[in-house]
From TrEMBL:
Transmembrane segments: none annotated. Residues 2-100 form the FAD-binding FR-type domain. This is Sulfide dehydrogenase (Flavoprotein) subunit SudA. It comes from the Bacteria. It comes from Tropicimonas isoalkanivorans.
């Protein structure tokens, strides 16, 4: 089912240290892609399946854009691939698309993205803007050294140029070297305290993509204010086949815990019914596995 046609890399460049953006030929995926979806990529015949969020796509050119953070063995190998190289296979689009619907004329949708959460947030925010919603984007980087897409002629700048006052961009960095010092939750908390208002408009919903810790912090923050919040749990998926069980998410429905798969039932979930306490302790284990795998391959 991987459709093992070689998928050529047409463009490739490093966005920031360890983060590579690629344009890959995948006409079938581009044709049916919707905001919030991902693909499952097999870099080489003997490689591992890696889920990657669709950062962008171009139906006419028959291409998709992927942003890959070199975290484990496979993603580091992918990031070494060059223009002209080909992936062994790309399957998709997969996952349920984002629920993008029109909000009130006076309302806004707040997005919070941490690091490589930005490529996942970008198509979703664009889809909201295209149907006329107002959007506030809070994008957090570790420091000025880790920035990408923020320049005037890069994606965020072009979004601003295209949609003008419909989109508000707010940047944060942990060390204060770019934008507001703090985390994405820093400006978000101010907005909630000011009466659930962003850019002078009531917040209709919050959409968050980033490391699990960040999504949990956003969820904990918005819950007491009753602001509907969606998290996209791409970052916990391992093979996106529905088989490995690594992406199990406990959610509370009708007082009972239901176990969902991020790669099948998601990647988006209502943040306020995710049982974060049962769910968070697992992440230490993933890091340990990645560490072992890296050692074995001496990368
Ligand atoms: Fe393996 Fe979902 S990522 S089952």
């Amino acid at each position: 089912d991987m459709g093992l046609e070689p998928q050529k890399i047409l463009k490739q460049h490093e966005l920031a240290s360890g983060i590579v953006e690629m344009t890959v030929r995948a006409p079938m995926v581009a044709r049916s892609a919707r905001a919030g979806q991902f693909v499952r990529v097999l870099a080489s015949e003997d490689g591992e399946l890696i889920p990657l969020t669709l950062a962008d796509w171009d139906v006419e050119a028959g291409t998709i854009d992927l942003v890959i953070q070199g975290m484990g063995t496979s993603t580091r190998l992918m990031n070494k691939m060059q223009v002209g190289d080909a992936f062994a296979g790309i399957a998709g689009p997969l996952g349920r698309p984002s629920d993008v619907h029109k909000h009130g004329e006076d309302e806004t949708v707040v997005f919070t993205a941490g690091g490589v959460g930005l490529p996942a947030i970008y198509p979703i925010s664009r889809a909201h803007l295209e149907i006329g919603n107002h959007v506030t984007m809070i994008v957090g980087f570790r420091s000025a050294d880790h920035l990408f897409w923020t320049g005037e002629d890069e994606r965020m700048g072009r979004l601003k140029a295209e949609f003008g006052e419909k989109v508000e961009l707010i940047y944060t960095s942990n060390d204060g070297t770019f934008g507001i010092q703090g985390f994405v939750t820093t400006p978000l908390e101010e907005m909630l305290k000011a009466g659930n208002v962003a850019n002078g408009r009531p917040i209709a919903e919050v959409v968050s993509v980033g490391p699990p810790m960040m999504m949990r912090a956003v969820s904990d923050l918005t819950k007491p204010y009753g602001v509907p919040t969606v998290v996209s749990l791409n970052s916990i998926m391992v093979d996106a086949t529905g088989m490995c069980g690594a992406c199990m998410v406990p959610v509370l429905t009708d007082g009972k815990t239901e176990r969902k798969h991020a790669c099948i039932d998601g990647p988006e979930f209502d943040a306020h019914i995710v049982e974060w306490d049962k769910f968070m302790p697992r992440f230490g284990m993933f890091r340990a596995q990645e560490g072992r795998s890296l050692e074995r391959h001496k990368l």
